[in-house]
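User: Need the bound-state model for octanoyl-coenzyme A:
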Amino acid sequence: MEQPIIIERQGRVVIVTLNRPAARNALNSEVMVAMANELAPLDRDPGVGCFVIRGSEKAFAAGADIKEMADKSFSQMYNEDFFAAWDRFASFRTPKIAAVSGYALGGGCELAMMCDMIFAADTAMFGQPEIKLGVIPGMGGSQRLTKLVGKAKAMDLILTGRMMDAQEAERCGLVARVIPAEKLIEETLKTAETIAGYGKAATTAAREAVDRALEGGLREGILFERRLFHALFATADQKEGMAAFVEKRAPAFKGE
Ligand code: CO8
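Assistant: Bound-state model below.
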């Protein structure tokens, strides 16, 4: 069976590659469990100084796996606390850089925002298209995006579902650097090595201190968002939005 993620170690840097290229790296439960469980011991390892999270050239990740979610009911989503294990990944203490090439949509954009910074290839496209599926962001997007880029841009992206390119993402503060696609991994690794070369207590403290500036109410915000996300699985429009995606047709929402 194909591994959901590939983990490679280069000195003090751990490179994590999302490995579902045919599904544009859609984030299913297997990917989530692997990210939370397999990276946890590396996060605690004093010999690991930085994570680099990357996807394929075409897609960092095109969101949560719509095919896995499409038929779930509200009670299933709520009782499973669907996708809660992503919180474990988000709370790792080792610095993490997202190297984004191609699409970072929905859960893919949210995964990138769980990292400490985003380096984007000039081909990168960011968006929160969940509204087109009859739902809302469910992996922290409504909270993190708003804190990172402000209300105006967050509303624009979340309410319309449009994509923004790497340049716009850099202008609005989502992205730390835009890099020519062919140099993305090389430059990201260089930066990861620099960070990994510093004392781990200092880099951990630095990221904790910076995050502190943003974190007022984040935990509550994410829980609130997840409950709303789960609740939308009680609507007919969620069933229609996701069925339409799977069947490759336009959705017909009825407001039910
Ligand atoms: N889920 C499942 N399968 C996907 C996904 C996805 N998110 N994205 C792409 N795929 C699949 C396609 O179905 C297709 O499969 P197949 O070959 O079997 O037909 C394959 O990947 C290739 O896709 P395309 O042919 O569409 O590739 P393109 O390069 O033409 O287009 C896009 C790429 C633009 C990325 C397009 O695939 C797309 O729009 N994808 C969906 C994007 C989206 O709506 N993302 C949001 C998902 S919802 C979400 O992320 C909510 C997160 C919160 C969950 C937390 C719960 C608590």
